[in-house]
Write a structure and sequence with these properties.
This protein is mainly alpha-helical and 174 residues long. The chain is built from 7 helices and 3 strands; from the N terminus they run H-H-H-E-H-H-E-E-H-H. The chain has a 3-stranded antiparallel β-sheet with strand order 1-3-2.
């Protein structure tokens, strides 16, 4: 069970509908807002993941291909933090994608420990249509949210993320 799944389960158990910890008419509690965010992420994942799997990709494969498509070639060790995968999972995903001919790996001339991963032409040809269909699915999920609301949501979520990162660094969690 993933961290997010565990968090959703535990928080929903603690903060059920009839929670004595919080009244719905009062200002929303941060923990409840987090619970809502986690439930939304879970629902989006359950909606979008079957399409990715049907296309023959795993979730980690998709994340790696997506970051390479949008950010360009990068060392294997840089990919993990960008897509929230541990180094072992990135290596396994890159190996799978390499065997399918979707990515290439090039060793650094100056440091043989460093391998740069890139989308191949085949990878681009295969993944771009998959990503476009994925983006269309996500757009459908957001169809009841205006462009302005999306912009505001993005700003707020970025602000929360930056603050959490700052606090984590202050606490020595990174």
């Amino acid at each position: 069970m993933s961290f997010l799944s565990t968090s959703i389960y535990m928080m929903s158990s603690i903060l059920g509908r009839d929670s004595f910890l919080m009244e719905r008419r009062r200002t929303p509690e941060a923990t409840h807002t987090l619970l809502v965010m986690l439930k939304v992420l879970r629902a989006l994942r359950h909606f979008a993941l079957p399409f990715i799997l049907k296309e023959g990709l795993g979730e980690s494969d998709f994340r790696v291909l997506e970051v390479l498509l949008h950010k360009g070639p990068m060392p294997v060790n840089v990919i993990g933090p960008k897509v929230d995968l541990n180094p072992g999972s990135v290596s396994v995903a890159v190996d799978r994608l390499y065997k399918k001919g979707l990515v290439s790996r090039v060793e650094s001339q100056s440091d043989r420990r460093v391998r740069t991963v890139s989308l191949t032409e085949k990878g681009r040809r295969v993944f771009v249509p998959i990503f476009r269909q994925h983006a269309a699915l996500i757009k459908r999920a957001f169809q009841d949210v205006s462009s302005e609301e999306q912009r505001q949501m993005e700003e707020v979520l970025k602000r929360i993320g930056r603050r959490a990162e700052e606090l984590g660094e202050q606490e020595g969690h990174r």
